[in-house]
Design a protein that fits this description.
The protein has 330 residues and is α/β, with parallel strands linked by helices. The chain has 3 domains: 5-48, Orthogonal Bundle (434 Repressor (Amino-terminal Domain)); 59-158 and 290-318, Rossmann fold, CATH 3.40.50.2300; 160-288 and 321-327, Rossmann fold. The chain is built from 12 helices and 12 strands. It has helices spanning 5-12, 16-24, 31-44, 50-57, 73-88, 102-114, 126-130, 160-173, 188-203, 217-228, 244-256, 290-306; strands at residues 62-67, 92-97, 119-122, 141-144, 154-158, 179-184, 209-213, 238-241, 266-270, 284-287, 314-317, 320-322. The strands form 2 sheets. Strands 2-1-3-4-5-11 form a 6-stranded parallel sheet, sandwiched between helices. The longest helix is centred in the C-terminal third of the chain and has 17 residues, at 290-306. The mean pLDDT is 93. Residues 3-57 form the HTH lacI-type domain. GO terms for molecular function: DNA-binding transcription factor activity; transcription cis-regulatory region binding. Keywords: DNA-binding, Transcription, Transcription regulation. InterPro entries: HTH_LacI (IPR000843), LacI/GalR-like_sensor (IPR046335), Lambda_DNA-bd_dom_sf (IPR010982), Peripla_BP_I (IPR028082). This is Transcriptional regulator, LacI family.
Length: 330
């Protein structure tokens, strides 16, 4: 039976407005009348339409979360942090995955508008980040992992240039000189890590061998395979991957060719995914404060909702260099 609020009003002998006040706990209602309405609700088994009530109030209590690749453990952990924090605040989360696809990204941003989300946490593609304007949306946005132009939106990111430079300095200090890098081609993150990588190599007068590729294992397999096929005198003696999926692909290709990380060629990268400590030798990585990124993003969003007029903030967090056997000294 599809019960409506007027059915409750009729059973309790009151107006629809009175029932609405009882349900929302908003407005004067005498205790005796309130108890009569609650009794009618229980007797009829009435369940209010929460979605309709949220739409009427203008507050859907829903957070949008748009990530670039849900298969990437980085975004899996970030999503967990956002969901944990949202749950504690009584908020729901709509999770969308773009696959670094601009069309899907635009579609999901439109979905956020249609769903009237309270706010959105978002990892944009490079092009979207560069042209992002917060005033184009009716809800506040916090960017994660990638940021737009200064002042365009609140953001939580890693210090990508510094982290990539630290990887290079570590490898140079271990005696490596032909250092190649794989960098994601769809985000500001890959470009920033390339910049830090190239700048650090330049300080040592070393050549920059780098490729911008789709940020997935298959791309790494292809390019690392080509590097390993070179003559011993020209192929890299170390490889850096700018995210966990590229690092995984590079490792797989090296193992498939019988190349041992840390013995034949060094291997290092970003993201302290579980497998990097389980293989032998372990893989040297920059560990990102992933859960903290998601948690802080929710804090920034909550603060923005409380005070929409505050100035935009961009928090840049440091990475932690975790040294393992894949970058053993030459």
């Amino acid at each position: 039976m599809n019960l409506r609020i007027k059915d409750v009003a009729q059973a309790a002998g009151v107006s629809v407005t009175t029932v609405s006040r009882v349900l929302s706990n908003n407005g004067p209602v005498r205790d005796a009348v309130r108890q009569r309405v609650l009794g009618a609700i229980e007797q009829l088994g009435y369940r209010p339409n929460a979605a309709a009530r949220r739409l009427r109030s203008g507050d859907t209590a829903t957070i949008g979360l748009i990530v670039s690749d849900v298969r990437n453990p980085f975004f899996t952990e970030v999503s967990r942090a956002v969901e944990d924090a949202a749950y504690q605040q009584g908020l729901r989360v709509i999770l969308c995955n773009t696959d670094e696809n601009a069309e899907k990204e635009a579609m999901y941003l439109r979905l956020m508008e249609e769903e009237r989300v309270t706010g959105c946490i978002y990892s944009p593609t490079h092009d979207a980040a560069q042209r992002f304007k917060a005033q184009a949306y009716d809800f506040p946005v916090v960017m994660i992992d990638r940021a737009g132009p200064a002042g365009s939106a609140d953001a939580v990111v890693l210090d990508n240039r510094d982290a990539a430079a630290r990887l290079v300095e570590h490898l140079v200090g271990r005696g490596y000189r032909r250092i190649a890098g794989l960098f994601g081609n769809a985000s500001t993150t890959g470009r920033e890590r390339h910049d830090g990588f190239a700048h650090a190599l330049g300080r040592h007068g070393l050549p920059v061998l780098a490729e911008f590729v789709e940020p997935n294992p298959a791309s790494a397999l292809e390019h690392v395979g080509a590097w390993l096929a070179r003559d011993a005198d020209t192929r890299p003696d170390a490889i850096v991957a700018s995210n966990g999926l590229l690092l995984l692909g590079a490792y797989r290709e090296m193992r498939a060719r019988g190349v041992t990380p840390g013995t034949d060629i060094a291997l290092a990268g970003f993201d302290n995914d579980a497998w990097t400590d389980l293989v032998t030798p372990g893989i040297t990585v920059v560990a990102q404060p992933v859960y903290e990124i998601g948690k802080i993003a929710m804090q920034l969003l909550t603060q923005r909702l409380a005070d929409p007029s505050m100035s935009t903030r961009s928090l840049v967090l440091p990475g932690d260099l975790v040294v393992r056997g894949s970058t053993a000294a030459r």
